[in-house]
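Question: does this match?
>
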Amino acid sequence: MALDLSGPALLPPTGAVQNLDNPPNHNDGFVAGYTVCIFVTSVFVSLRLYAKFIFLKLPRVVDYLLFPLFGIYIAHCVFWLRMNGTTGNMVHMWNFRLGGLAPFYRNGFYGSVLYETVMMTIKPMILFEWTSIFAPSGLRNWFKWVAYTVSTINVLMYFIAIMIDSTSCHPRAAWWDLTIEGGHCINTKKLPIVTSTMNAIIDLIILLLPQNVIWRLHLSKGRKIGISLVFFVGVISVVAAVSRTVLGYTYENSDDVTYNFSRAGIFMLLEMTSAILVFTIPTTPKPMAHLAQQAGSSINRLMRSTGNGGSSGDGAFATGIAGPKADVYHNNGEPENSMPLTKIRPTKSQRAGGGVERDAESELELVMPEHLR
């Protein structure tokens, strides 16, 4: 017997009013949310690339990886927003026609795999970046081993998740098209619960890992608080991961799959966005201060050229903001319960030769400019 593709995908629960022709949705909210997240991440990704490729002229492998990773992030956003062009986002399944499920789920499938790819990549990038800040080259300590262990677990977890999602249905199109004859899928409803729970644990470790080091530095209390807050952006990712874990239990026991699937997309977006911000924000304060200095200098010169400017040292931006050749801070190896940072100016041979000092150049100074100590 042929399926009626124009019929409802699910019978409505008692008391619910079915609307197959113009079902209520939250498409506008999704467009607004995704637009804000794409804009914010674009700004900070650009600042990160400016800091590493232009300001410091010291890009690492993780900075080159940021290009394809950001492209995958944008691709996820495109696929999830394309779900607006189907029956819609945040639409109850009883308001879907059976024939409308395939295009909705197809975009969701690719969006989910792209999300898993981003999360598989960005967290090791964060941890490897932090080892260069808090455990420079040549130093093997607990920080590095924790970072390497967590990175390995994260990569394996998401690789397995991608493999399960990609091979759970035969043929693969049965993942999104329930009408394919002979198509069958294994039950993967517990997969989001497992991945989101592990995700929350990993996010919490990433959130807390640098705090112990920061509070052992020989810096003023105010500067420690400032640096600590910069690294606390990851709290958004922890909250999103915990929320997705709770939603996973709801999803497992609910027939309203389309609505819960859209809700999961919100937390996926928050997790990816906050992870990218965790990676990019710590490098932005000093380059931003440098750009502000340059803008202030340009304004002062313009004002002087029109007869309204003051002396070159009087402008609001003519402060002691450190430039690209700012003092470099390093762990001087004092034992155990303290981790002072000594001020070292790299020699010309170290700057050219890429020694330990060059490897760790100005990483903490990028977090908070010298004049803000």
